[in-house]
Write a structure and sequence with these properties.
Elements: E1 6-9, H1 16-25, E2 29-31, H2 38-41, H3 49-52, H4 59-80, E3 85-89, H5 97-103, E4 108-113, H6 116-127, H7 129-151, E5 158-162, H8 163-168, H9 170-180, H10 203-213
Parallel strand pairs: 1-3, 1-4, 2-3, 4-5
Helix pairs in contact: 6-7
Length: about 240
């Protein structure tokens, strides 16, 4: 791995897709659709370990094999797009950071944090009240656990970004982010909607639709801030 992998982490509906599109807009970084399958591959060294250990290889061997496979296709995908470095955004991976750290000990984590009340409201608007109620516990679990994990990493491997600051001070926040990633600044990241992306998940459309509804002039906008702060309580 010539370039350090990048992982976007955070509670779902916290702006992870927006951050994915921003990173994917950078000339050096490819951040494609969510993969999900690292969750399945992790079973090799946990759920199914009793079976595979009979082959006589330790967990470090299997970690290397899994990392090599994941890195190879991400690197080839990036190169196909004329880019040098890959990033990954799958919110589910936020629950398995120890495993990811074993696979990619030089990776850089970007933890995006959004006001929990807005996260719950976003779940409610997309999937209804039952899912929204579950998201309260998810947020209260994800955020402290990710912060604790990040505190164990060096400062060049973990950074926190507040969604509220990203959408109200985009250039200032993104300049700091790309400095952390050791990537040159390029103003194209402020216009991610003008760059072609490989899309699968539906939520990028949500981002664009909310921009249009708010008649926002910028691709990064604050129309979704404070949706239900007065009506939702997390504690």
């Amino acid at each position: 791995m010539a370039q350090k992998p990048i992982f976007i982490i955070g509670s779902p509906r916290s702006g992870t897709t927006l951050l994915r599109l921003i990173l994917d807009s950078h000339p050096n970084i490819s951040c494609g659709p969510e993969t999900h399958f690292l969750s399945e591959l992790s079973r090799i060294v946990n759920t199914h370990w009793g079976q595979v250990e009979t082959f006589g290889f330790d967990k470090a061997y299997w970690h290397q094999k899994i990392a090599s496979f994941f890195d190879s296709f991400q690197t080839e995908y990036a190169q196909k797009r004329g880019k040098e470095r890959w990033a990954e955004k799958t919110p589910r991976y936020t629950t398995m950071l120890d495993f990811i750290n074993e696979l990619f000990p030089d990776s850089q984590m970007i933890h995006i944090i959004r006001d929990g009340r807005d996260v719950v409201t976003s779940h409610r608007d997309r999937w209804g009240y039952k899912v929204a109620m579950r998201s309260i516990n998810d947020w209260k679990t994800y955020v402290p656990r990710d912060k604790e994990f990040g505190n164990e990493l060096s400062r060049d491997r973990y950074i926190e970004i507040r969604y509220e600051e990203l959408v109200t001070q985009p250039e200032n926040i993104l300049r700091g982010l790309f400095a952390y990633l050791n990537e040159p600044w390029d103003p194209v990241v402020l216009k991610h909607n003008e760059v072609e992306h490989d899309m699968r998940e539906a939520s990028p459309g949500d981002t664009e639709n909310s921009r249009r509804t708010a008649t926002a002039k910028s691709a990064i906008h604050s129309s979704r801030l404070g949706q239900e702060k007065a009506n939702l309580t997390l504690y």
